[in-house]
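> Could you send the snRNA-activating protein complex subunit 3 prediction when you get a chance?

Sure thing. Input:
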Amino acid sequence: MATNIDNRTLESQFGPPSEPIDVGAFIRCAAGLPSFAQSSCQAVLNAMPVEQRSALRDACSVTDIKDALSDTWNSPKVCAHVSKIHETTVSGYYFALRPKARHRRKVEQPNAGSDTLLQTVQSNMDSVSLQCWNIPSAACYFIRGPKNTDANALSETKMANPNALFPFQGSDALLTITVYKRSSGVILRSFQHVLLSSQTLEDLFYVIPCISNELPRQVLNEDGEIFFEGQCENDGYVLCIEGQAYGDGAPGGKSYATKLSRHLKTMSSMQPQIEIAPRNAHSTRLDTLTLRLNEPYWILHQGNCEHIFVVDEIRMRHPHDHENGYPLTTHAAPILMANCRLCTKVPATLSVVGDLRLGDSPCLICGPCWRNMGSSVPSGVVVVPLPAHQAGW
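Output:
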């Protein structure tokens, strides 16, 4: 676990943490509050006089805004024109902010021309009197280009177990948890999950997909040569939350939490010390924890594979929420797979080490290209299958 992360870096990534929240106390407190379910609001609305009800609906109506947005985004011509205006504005601010950067041709502001529809849209946008409508030049400090992790590979919410039914109960809360990974010194968003407060830390661990769980198992044949097959066994895990290490519960001092605690004691005294929690992850329900929003917590498994997870939201369960399938996966960043070094056409499936016929070692190569190089494996060459991203994806 990396313990030398600059706190300012984490705060800029996740935001300042909240005060500690006792999940169980939050549920008990919320249970005594009046319900704001849609059915209760509808009952209050129906009890109003007709005139008052109509006035309230007219005041709260956003039909005009909805119609304008729908007309804009449903028209490819208008949508492209509006998007081009935004891109041109942002590009102009970037150019003004970095005048010494490599010169690029300035993007021209799109012109509505003689198109009546575009002229109408442009005049409507120009007539907006809100001072915050136009993007100020200082906005370029808070605008970034889209990242791969912003996209969602899921077309709908993914259920971990569609057959597991969780009937609605007033004592249930939902926790939205986002999982991050490290990549070249930066922290990238990987997945977002929704769990019930009655579920455990073990449920959280097993819902997170990770390619480390698909690493092949190293085997020695009769000639002493190394080859790989199948998948390696899970050697345990630990979740570090608020200075407590919740292990996998392996007996005889083999728990991952015990190993982590023993390792940290050999480190410098400047490193934060973690206590072993009195309960393991299997028996620790989320509603028994005290958590902080926007505070990074750690998961370690498979040697030193590290995940950072952050609690984004704790709220009471609503009758319209899913009744089954928890934990849910609501976001999964698209997977970027390296292409074959030979054909550069398809994703690589093998890593070849020590082959003089290839330019690199290791060299990432696809199955067809490797078969075309011959059926026999030269002496000293090791072929390792790459993770297929199947477990949990």
